[in-house]
Amino acid sequence: MDRIQQMEVFAAINDTGSFVQAANRLRMSPPAVTRAMNALEERLGVQLLTRSTRQLTLTDAGTRFLIAARQLLVEIESAEKLAVGEEGVAQGHLTVSASLAFSRMIAAPVIRSFLASHPRISVSLVAVDRVTNIVEEGIDVAIRIGELPDSNLMAKRLGVVRRLFVASPEYLDRRGTPNDPSELKLHSIIGFTGIMSIHDWHYKHGKSRGHVQLHPRFEVNDATTALTAATAGEGITMALSYMVADEIRSGQLAPVLVDYLPPAEPIHLVYPQSKIVAPKVRSFVDFAADRLTDAIGQSELALS
Hints:
The chain is an alpha/beta fold and about 300 residues long. The chain is built from 10 helices and 14 strands. The chain has helices spanning about 5-15, 20-25, 30-45, 60-85, 100-115, 135, 170-175, 225-230, 240-250, 280-300, and strands at about 50, 55-60, 90-100, 120-125, 140-145, 155-160, 165, 190, 200-205, 210-215, 220, 235-240, 255, 265-270. Helix 2 (about 20-25) crosses helix 3 (about 30-45). The longest helix has 24 residues, at about 60-85. This is Transcriptional regulator, LysR family.
């Protein structure tokens, strides 16, 4: 088995998380995949994967080699397409990751439009409320909220989102509108752990800073459930601006303590840095960036 095929096997194992699933993807037998992986590690003289009965984990050497191997495989694919006159044609399978709420409300509609105009591309949308490891999980493009750490990823800024407290007008009429963060202690708090995992909320008001300890009466790891409870008049919850733009626009929810909210956070499209960006990735970034920016901007308009 040649070196390129060994790299393809290694990448497929990391993409699927399983030797058996990698074999199915590559149309090889599981023993052949195992032999290829063993041969690769023997040839390199380092262990690339730590194997256990439950999971496969990249070693540090494996992480470094996977980044380089993916770049090389992209360049080889581009060279082959160039030889047959398909260089620059967007085709193949694309994997995109974003948070659950962002996927449902903003990313999925844009992806469906992208698919309608790119018939040679298929897309998997990985909706998870955690930061995905693009290299280890085989993600082509990710949508990240918050400041980006230094990395080897390319990034395209899409706009900003804000964290804000919201409640229904009916709840505020019944329990009163808090005018100071300390008054949150007197209210029923609905905690969405995706953005409120720490109950000690720090805020800034002008030049002064402070914090208040929150004690949620109802806590859930799903944004939709938290917002449903808030809309039903059951308490105050924290959400990201795009999650509640329609409800604020329609009057179902109202922002509270707006003078104490933290600064807006940036949102980016990120993808692995490479000398040659795969046409499917380039096409998606070019197509999606403006549309995502417009959708995010519309949600911010509802709050202005």
